[in-house]
């Protein structure tokens, strides 16, 4: 069983060819990521990219009045800070830890140097394409599907990025991620609990029936998952 501090719990790092892995390893810094920690703000210059291993990070679009809504989630499948190797030093989104845990970070200078190496370039570009799909599908889902369906999609995407079936998450934070009122999340979560799909207690969500959630959500979850599975290599746990 891999240690929680093993960089290869992150699927992108685990997929690196051996020469790149050996070159990256000394430069990777293990960091603790606390619930609610802001990794970068909208418009700020990014100093690092982050590879979550046991945490989940939300990418939020922030309005001028301070309101925000989640546009994507990143966990152990990906990287936070794609604008650094896409030619920009900043991004209009905010990155906030939505489920505490650990990850690894790499400096902006190091990732930009590595991006010029072909194998890494191709892998990161495929991940970026999958992330853009998630963002677009999130926008469609928030516009056209019910809150119940959105919550199921959000829970499933979060589960895909963590080990286990438990999420540490308050209803207030979920409401902030989905851009809705807390009362709406409370009502939707209660329906899922009454259907024996989840159990919610003291800021912890236990998923009891993943198959039931998949049947209850909209097509948006399947679209996003299919794209991640298509574009990114399968990593077999050591």
3D structure, described in words:
This protein has helices at residues 11-14, 18-24, 108-115, 118-144, 147-160, 171-178, 182-194, 210-216, 220-231; strands at 29-33, 38-40, 48-52, 56-62, 68-74, 93-99, 101-107, 166-168, 198-201, 204-207. It has 238 residues and is α+β, with helices and mostly antiparallel strands. The protein has two domains: 7-141, Jelly Rolls (Sandwich), CATH 2.60.120; 145-225, Orthogonal Bundle (Arc Repressor Mutant, subunit A), CATH 1.10.10.10. It has a four-stranded antiparallel beta sheet with strand order 2-6-4-5. The chain has a three-stranded antiparallel beta sheet with strand order 1-7-3. It has a three-stranded antiparallel beta sheet with strand order 8-10-9. α5 packs across α8 (210-216) and α6 packs across α7 (182-194). It is globular, with a radius of gyration of 17 Å. The termini are close together. The mean pLDDT is 88.
Question: Quick gist of this model?
Answer:
With 238 residues, this protein is of the alpha+beta class. 42% of the residues lie in helices and 22% in strands. The protein has 2 domains: 7-141, Jelly Rolls (Sandwich), CATH 2.60.120; 145-225, Arc Repressor Mutant, subunit A, CATH 1.10.10.10.
How would you spell out the order of helices and strands?
HHEEEEEEEHHHEHHEEHH
Rg estimate, integer Å? 17 Å
Name the shape in a single word.
globular
CATH class term of the largest domain: Mainly Beta
Strand content: 15-25%
CATH fold label of the largest domain: Jelly Rolls
Report helical residue fraction. 40-55%
State the secondary-structure class.
alpha+beta
Low-confidence stretches: none
CATH superfamily of the largest domain: Jelly Rolls
Number of strands: 10
Distance between the termini: 7 Å
Overall average pLDDT: 88
The name of the CATH architecture of the largest domain is: Sandwich
Q: How many distinct helices?
A: 9
Our count of domains comes out at: 2
Describe the biggest sheet? 4 strands, antiparallel
**Strand order in space, largest sheet:** 2-6-4-5
């Amino acid at each position: 069983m891999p240690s929680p501090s093993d960089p290869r719990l992150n699927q992108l790092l685990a997929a690196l060819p051996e020469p790149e892995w050996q070159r990256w390893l000394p430069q990777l810094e293990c960091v603790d990521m606390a619930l609610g920690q802001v990794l970068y703000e909208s418009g700020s210059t990014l100093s690092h990219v982050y590879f979550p291993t046991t945490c989940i990070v939300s990418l939020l679009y922030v309005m001028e009045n301070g309101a925000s809504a989640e546009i994507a989630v990143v966990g152990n499948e990906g990287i936070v800070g794609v604008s650094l190797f896409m030619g920009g030093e900043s991004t209009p989104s905010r990155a906030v830890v939505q489920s505490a845990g650990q990850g690894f970070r790499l400096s902006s200078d190091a990732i930009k140097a590595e991006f010029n190496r072909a194998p890494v370039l191709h892998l990161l570009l495929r991940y970026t394409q999958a992330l853009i799909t998630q963002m677009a599908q999130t926008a469609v889902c928030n516009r056209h599907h019910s809150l119940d369906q959105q919550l199921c999609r959000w829970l499933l995407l979060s589960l895909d990025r963590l080990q286990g079936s438990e999420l540490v998450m308050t209803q207030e934070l979920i409401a902030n991620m989905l851009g809705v009122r807390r009362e709406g999340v409370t009502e939707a979560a209660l329906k899922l609990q009454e259907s024996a799909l989840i159990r919610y207690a003291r800021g912890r969500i236990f998923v009891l029936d993943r198959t039931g959630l998949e049947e209850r959500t909209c097509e948006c979850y399947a679209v996003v998952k299919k794209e991640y599975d298509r574009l990114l290599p399968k990593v077999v746990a050591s």
